[in-house]
Amino acid sequence: PRTTPALLYLDAITVAFDGFRALNKLSFTIAPGEMRAIIGPNGAGKTTMMDVVTGKTKPDEGDVVFDGSHDLSSMDETQIATLGIGRKFQKPTVFESHTVEDNLRLALKADRRPRATLFWRDSSEERDRLDAILTTIRMTPDRGRLAGALSHGQKQWLEIGMLLAQEPKLLLVDEPVAGMTDAETMQTAELLREINRERSVVVVEHDMAFVRELGVKVTCLHEGSVIAEGSIDQVSENQRVVEVYLGR
Ligand code: ADP
């Protein structure tokens, strides 16, 4: 098996649906501790890329290696999650009739035992981790509120908190600021930067103001391949990127 210093290594990944290449020799790497923004127009292959990394879709060709030597193409979704890859989908799926705190408690307990219930007593370690996650997602004052009563932005943060309960090494986040207010968008950038102090993050995003605010390296996909990589300024001045976004 291939070994690499990268946390996530994709090399010449091809995924075809009925002969159409959603990913076409896609290659990029994420370093340990890095946060990366992935951009690209609709249909560029961003979702398919995340499906490959999480094991939902198997590549037809190419290598996908996690944390040095784990060949993800030979693992199922559960094994990959256990290795330390968490995925935040666009739509939040919190338990609306539970409080913020109970949503997080369930996530913390499920991390230990899949069929845990809220009736189990919290260990002191669980209480500490709960408090730490509430601080990270800035929801300590909201801990007793029902999740169903939260704003859209707060639900997104709560779901990110639930993923943090699994202590992923790599967090994949799909369009976190879609539907958020400007204030929530800026707070999300801050939140992700804080999370990035402890773990690697890949953010797929359309909102360029948000990507600029994140201030991290950007990879632009188009037709299943990388067409540009660098700072947001470098990428947004790249001629191919300009053409692709203007639809020429
Ligand atoms: P993005 O997330 O960047 O919008 P996707 O990864 O969703 O792009 O899609 C890339 C391309 O692959 C699109 O043209 C899409 O229509 C196609 N595609 C994605 N999933 C499937 C599928 N299950 N069957 C057929 N075509 C698909």
From TrEMBL:
Q: Which domain of life is it from?
A: Bacteria
Query: What keywords are assigned to this protein?
Result: ATP-binding, Hydrolase, Nucleotide-binding, Transport
Q: Which GO terms describe its cellular component?
A: plasma membrane
Query: InterPro entries of this UniProt entry?
Result: AAA+_ATPase (IPR003593), ABC_AA/LPS_Transport (IPR051120), ABC_transporter-like_ATP-bd (IPR003439), ABC_transptr_urea_ATP-bd_UrtD (IPR017781), BCA_ABC_TP_C (IPR032823), P-loop_NTPase (IPR027417)
Pfam families, sorted: ABC_tran, BCA_ABC_TP_C
Enzyme class, spelled out: hydrolase
Which GO molecular function annotation, any one, does this entry have?
A: ATP hydrolysis activity
Q: Which segments constitute the ABC transporter domain?
A: 8-248
Q: Does the UniProt entry include the keyword Nucleotide-binding?
A: yes
Q: Which PROSITE patterns match?
A: ABC_TRANSPORTER_2
The record's EC number reads: 3.6.3.17
- Membrane-crossing segments per the record: none
Q: What does this protein do?
A: Involved in beta-(1-->2)glucan export. Transmembrane domains (TMD) form a pore in the inner membrane and the ATP-binding domain (NBD) is responsible for energy generation.
PANTHER family cross-referenced by the UniProt entry: CONSERVED COMPONENT OF ABC TRANSPORTER FOR NATURAL AMINO ACIDS-RELATED, HIGH-AFFINITY BRANCHED-CHAIN AMINO ACID TRANSPORT ATP-BINDING PROTEIN
Protein's recorded name: Ribose import ATP-binding protein RbsA
